[in-house]
Structures are given as structure tokens and as C-alpha cells.
Amino acid sequence: MSRRLRAAAGLAGALLTLSACGGSSGEGGRADSPAGAGDGDTAGSGTVTCEWGEGSSANPYLTEVAPPDDVAPASGTTALRVTTNLGELTLILDRAATPCAAASLVHLTEQGFFDDTPCHREVDSEGLQVLQCGDPTGTGAGGPTYTSPTEVTGAETYPRGTVAMANSGQGFDGSQFFLVWGDSQLPPDYTVVGTVDEAGLAVLDEVAANGNDGSLDPSPGGGAPNVPVTIESVTVA
Questions:
Q1: Of 70, 34, 43, nearest to 146 (Cα)?
Q2: 226 phi and psi angles, rounded to 5 deg
Q3: Lower Cβ count inside 10 Å, N or C end of the chain?
Q4: What backbone torsions phi and psi does residue 44 show, to the nearest 5 degrees?
Q5: Rounded to an integer, what distance in angstroms lies between the CA atom of residue 236 and that of residue 105?
Q6: Of 133, 209, 184, 147, the residue nearest 14 (C-alpha)
Q7: Contact of 173 with 149, CB cutoff 8 Å
Q8: Rounded to 5 degrees, what angle do the CA atoms 147, 81, 110 make?
Q9: Could you tell me whether strands 143-144 and 62-63 are parallel, antiparallel, or unpaired per DSSP bridges?
Q10: CA dist., res. 45 & res. 87, Å (int)
Q11: Which architecture, in CATH terms, is 14-236?
């Protein structure tokens, strides 16, 4: 199954589904709230138990990474400082709303997973305005060898400044995430893990102004940024 973004029919404008490859042979549960992240959650004590799945063994683009601890914090926020060739962004991760996604991004950060990786796709259609990153291979097919649960309530929206996880279906989130630089019309199928700070939005505006090469038009849409965007390092702030 492809991790590349694919078109989604039946919604207004140039609505696109953001997906990422790596179907799983394990179970990746859908979480309607932090308490739904896993069977053994202990949300009352500020933690949840996350169910990590296994990425597809048929996908040669996955990078071997052990999953995080099963028990993840479920309160407060965590900041990731993302240094790119075009400037710095700070991502504020919401551990209370999406504890498993936040735990996975922190874990991958601590492994250096995102360092020296490209942001492989920019979209500037009327209904979707995003930069997608998090694939070390830059192909749209890469990620870790584990999957994360999709943490949605059905009320998610994707305004400017949103950080959300790409997926290859409910329960199959990986390492790829998208940064929303313009209000985007998407179904509530993608874990909204946090927000981008104002300085980061200025970087995204520069990426948007530079445009993309259209290599993925007409479907799934967009293409590689005309001015390459490289994540040089990510650290837990």
C-alpha cells in the first residue's frame, strides 16, 4: 500500500487524502479519545497504553526502528524544535489529546530518525495547502517498521498551523506528518497531533511561495517543493 498522498473523491474542491504507506500485520487501534488508545489505558493516572503495530514486511522503504514504550504520557504538551535549511519551526505536540502520536514523534526524534531528511511533497490547491515530511527515503513510501494508532474523535479540522499524521488507513499511522500552511478541507481521518509556532508558519509561507514542481499532478496532486526543504535536525525542546 502506497504512503503517497492520493486523491479523495466526493468532497469540495481539490480535496486530497493524505496517506502514507506501510500496511500492518499487527493491530493498530483507533482511538476516539486518549482513553481509547489501548486496552490497558490508565488515563486517570496521566498515561495510556498504546498498541503499536508492525509495518508491512513487503515494503522495502521502511527503516528498522523499535517502537516506543507501550505506556505513554497523556497530559500536557511537548515541543519539538525542527531546524530546516529554510529556518526553524517549533511543533507543539498535544500529549493529552493524542498521546500515542506524540510519544511516537518524540521517540523517533530521540532516535535521530528525522535528521537530514527531505520534506517530499508540497500541495497548494484551493482545498489542501500542506507540506508533508517525515519520510527518510523522500519517496513517499518510507517510515519506521512499526505503526501507530490513529487518534481521532471525528470532530477534527485542519486549519492553518495544524500538525497532523499521514496514514495508510485508520490505525496505520507512521512517521510521516503534514504541516498545514493554509486552511485545508479534509475528512476527520488524520490524527491532529499539535500546532506550528508563528516562526514556523513564516517558514511554511516561504515554502508555499516557492511552489512545487507539479510532479504529482493531477493525482494525487502537488509535487516536490521547487526549493528543496530539508529537515537538518529535530530535538525535543
A1: 70
A2: -60, -40
A3: C
A4: -65, -25
A5: 10
A6: 184
A7: yes
A8: 45
A9: parallel
A10: 38
A11: Beta Barrel (2.40)
- 52 neighbors 147 (Cβ within 8 angstroms): yes
At position 152, the amino acid (one-letter code) is: V
How far is it, in rounded angstroms, from Cα 101 to Cα 144? 13
Three-class SS state of 78? strand
From the list 161, 127, 98, 146, the residue with the least C-alpha distance to 15 is 127
Q: Count the neighbouring beta carbons within 10 Å of the beta carbon of residue 50.
A: 27
- pLDDT tens digits for the chain (237 residues)? 333 333 222 222 222 345 554 443 333 332 333 323 544 444 446 999 999 999 888 999 999 999 999 999 999 999 999 999 999 999 999 999 999 999 999 999 999 999 999 999 999 998 999 999 999 999 999 999 999 999 999 999 999 999 999 998 888 999 999 999 999 999 999 999 999 999 999 999 999 999 999 998 888 889 999 999 999 999 999
Which grid coordinates are listed for 48?
Answer: 495510556
> What is the residue extent of each domain of the chain?
14-236
Candidates 181, 213, 187, 150; CA nearest to 20 is 150
